[in-house]
Amino acid sequence: MPPAPLPLPAIHASHVGIWIADPHGRVQRVGRGEAIAAVAATPHLLLNATLTGDRLGYPELSGLDLLELFAFLYPARFAVPTPAGIAAAIGLATPKTEGDIAAFLPQATAALLAGIDDPSWPEREGAWHAMQALARQRWPWAPLVQPRLTTPDANERWLFARLPEWEEVPPRAAPRQVRINADDVTARLDRLTGDGAERRPGQQDYARATAAIFEPRERKDAPQMLVAEAGTGIGKTLGYLAPAKQWIDQSAGSVCISTFTKALQRQLSRETERLYPDAATHREKVVVRKGRENYLCLLNLEDALQGGFSGRAAILAQLVARWAAYTRDGDMVGGDLPGWLPALFRRNGTTALTDRRGECIYVGCPHFRKCFIEHSARAATQADIVIANHALTMVQAARPRDSGAPATRLIFDEGHHLWDAADSMFAAALTGQEAVEIRRWVLGPEGKSRGRRRGLAARLADVASYDEAGERAIQAAITAAAEMPGDGWLGRLSENEPWGAIERLLAAVRGQVYARAVDTRTADAGYGLETELADPDAALVAAAAAASDAVEALLRPLLALGKRLEVLIEDPPDWLDGQARARVDGARHSLGTRIDTLGGWLSLLGRVGGPADPDFVDWLAVDRYDGREFDCGLHRHWLDPARPIAEIVYRPAQGVLVTSATLRSGHGAQGWAEADIRTGARHMDGGVRHFAVPSPFDYARQSEVIIVTDIARGDLPALAGAYSRLIEASGGGALGLFSAIRRLRIVHARIADRLARAGLPLYAQHVDPLDTGTLVDIFRADPHASLLGTDALRDGVDVPGESLRQVIMEGVPWPRPTILHAARRAAQGGSAYDDMVIRGRIGQAFGRLIRRADDFGQFVILSPSFPSRLLSAFPEGTPIRRLPLDEAVNHVAAANVERRKSAFPAFSPS
Ligand code: SF4
Fold first, then answer.
1. Ligand 1: which residue has its CA nearest to atom 2?
2. Are 150 and 117 in contact (CB under 8 A)?
3. What is the rounded distance in angstroms from the CA atom of residue 638 to the CA atom of residue 617?
4. Using CB atoms within 10 A as the burial measure, which of 297, 334, 342, 694 is most buried?
5. What value, to the nearest 5°, has the Cα angle with vertex 460 and ends 458 and 465?
6. Which residues line ligand 1 at a C-beta cut-off of 6 Å?
């Protein structure tokens, strides 16, 4: 018997309307003005204050947010942040209509609060202490929750005492050289897919092919390398996990699996549970790793809890502390911290809780032995399987740390993203924001900044007091860093009053960009401006020379300090005990990153007025958003970013698999040539094997491509109308993809209310105040919902089944005509390069549609003159029709009727 609803008023607002329930449960539909007056006078129960405030047009909205209560009661538990999602999470019936939601909220609140009285509530420990602090912060829920919590009997452990400590472990030995047997791989795959499961020949072939990367290497710098495309539905993950586990068992080695998206990292972690069914063993043998900026820094959290944060941010810090006690690994971004939680606290400061700027003080930190980042780094050295992302895998290959033998076998899943990942990883940028970061890293907080963030001198206090040469280097670095741009640099630039050599350089860059840049994207005016770094004017050349001196003045002492730290590690003095050594080692690593950055800046500055390096593309840019400048500076990218992948990442490995469902952007041998360009395999001097296995899906029956021929490019009302009619025709379940945020927003604003009134909620990236992961969760949970988004959704969405049955692309995703793109286009075959990029993008977008053998989906692209040469982006056999919008809508509607008639959507093409 559910508890009686709480006698409190509640509000629900959506694109359809606004409803208020009074304390007696009477629900009334109200207008916006009346609703705002009511919530301003009395705190109401609501679900997601940020989103509700958005719908009301009242961003200051506050109240009793059920999501905050859920986060307090059930930290680290998953819930979709909607009424239906919360109902499912706590076992209540889902409200049937929007009008029922306001009445549902008091009922859900009563059920949530009743959970506190349940003696088996698993997250009770720590709740009483957290509540005392939240009551002091005047958390609106405190008066309702506090009386229900009993004072704990024993001395309840405070968060920092509760977290486990890591232990020092010996480095892992190098793996034995073994050969794995194809029959063993097949048998292993059979066991993984489950006894009695139907054998999938494509998956078996794929598993045997990928086993090749585990053979012993024959030549130095020539890993066993395979580039393998496995069509969607092959069961690629288990296909490579089977030989990997066989090799791990025989060789005692470890394997690194690298992905691009966090979604695949999560999915891989789940799939590896089949290799290690026991939960404790799985935790030990499989470690998910991300960059350190993803993890909670306990020192920053302690600082926030002890007065560093105030107001709403202090409440967030308490809820994060509750989560920290129950999290699996402390991952705040895409881990088990609900993605929607930070968004409930606008201007929230969660980034201040991570170690985003590399200001860790290592063993100087009282929480070093409990630190999530250190836990994860150490666990990874002992794990059989490390699931990392491409960026981190590249960083570790470029700057390995002394923590035992690195993984010798690398598997790059989502290999079609290696190019983009390397493009950012191996790029250099000397911009105002980057320079401010370096200044902060050396000097620590300045002015009124609070908190424990520390500069280099504080992080290396023991080196400074015991080692004279080290102390001199630190002081010289501090003097040089003070010449870097500090806060307010953008304002000084716009007032033409730059201070110091780097700001004068930035002023010259800005001047040249405004003088020469052509805003080719008139439709998106107000965004970035750029110009080639060619024939610079005299002012820029002179400013670059002075800036080089300033950069060198900082680089020299950092290099000297790096050498001192190396000497200390190699020949440790008496004072360098184990703890101090770990700190010096950590500092040495983060110093290496800054030294690399400054080295990159010097070569970029040397290029101003000097000869161009044909391996690189250099340009000047002013970054703007909605017409407001936020950064400016010089940029350098590799013309072919796959080259450093081959040099730095592939060559040192013993075996490398690069795999994906869409490596070739076309069919046949030409496809492999393109795949080798995008993955860097062409730089491996031959010896790279290729393998492809087609998708088992029947695309001719399960899918259809519709090219809508009568929506003119740039006609925004027509574009919005087309989206609206297509979404209505499919009854929701549509993923709309845009190349420009501005167009996405305009289309959303025009159609969201109308669709919502038809019972078809529409969510959108860059509009709804929710993170992308949460938007996808909401979309997945409601088959009537649709989602609009940009590039991140083209790959990051894995929604099998009913919820995704139509992908709508606003047009051909032409590459933006940037300087970098133009250089690569010129170097790699002109329009053929464009076609390769576009086919890749379309192929990835199409890949969202059919995820299971019983899926059916339609791919609609709004393009009056879609080039026939791009049709090879779709799987062979996929029906393709060019239709005017009216007919396209009828087609989509007919498929929807068929879908409803039959559990299996047997669509028969007309
Ligand atoms: S060791 Fe570094 S990252 Fe970890 S909690 Fe301490 S300061 Fe934060």
1. 360
2. no
3. 6
4. 297
5. 95
6. 297-299, 355, 360-362, 365, 367-368, 371, 373-374
